[in-house]
Design a protein that fits this description.
Length: about 140
């Protein structure tokens, strides 16, 4: 059974990213499953640090985007979300060509949501684990 209150396709989700930092760094939403949201981020000149591996901040951008979008999809049209807190543990170097993030809920509440985001490399090795807490707010 799906956790989503709003139903969109990955194509529609990617349209939401147009004109944002997410588009600038090449992020793509690839899957919206019943209980997870998946996206990729290239590891290239836009997202690397000087040693040719993914910048830690780029991993956080991917994690926050996936968790925030997932939170939004868990809200009805009378609510919206904002990030409250994010942390990231960088486990190993993310190398070209890309990394993949998967957001799964730890808590879906009426006032807060907490998501765990695992970011892996192309060999499915863990690169980063992040946790995002979002506040759920009433539209005005």
């Amino acid at each position: 059974m799906s956790i989503w209150k709003r139903h969109i396709t990955p194509t529609q989700a990617n349209a939401l990213l147009q004109g944002t930092m997410c588009e600038h760094v090449g992020m793509v939403i690839t899957e919206i499953g019943d209980e997870h949201l998946t996206g990729t981020l290239p590891v290239d000149e836009r997202t690397c640090q000087h040693m040719g591996i993914i910048h830690g901040g780029a991993s956080v951008v991917l994690a926050e985007t996936l968790g925030s979008l997932a939170s939004t999809l868990c809200c009805d049209d009378s609510h919206y979300v904002v990030g409250l807190d994010i942390n990231a543990n960088h486990i190993r170097a993310g190398r070209p060509p890309l990394v993949t993030g998967v957001a799964r809920p730890l808590h879906i509440g009426s006032t807060t949501m907490v998501w765990e985001i695992h970011i892996t490399d192309t060999e499915d090795r863990l690169v980063c684990v992040s946790r995002l807490t979002c506040a759920v707010l009433q539209q005005r």
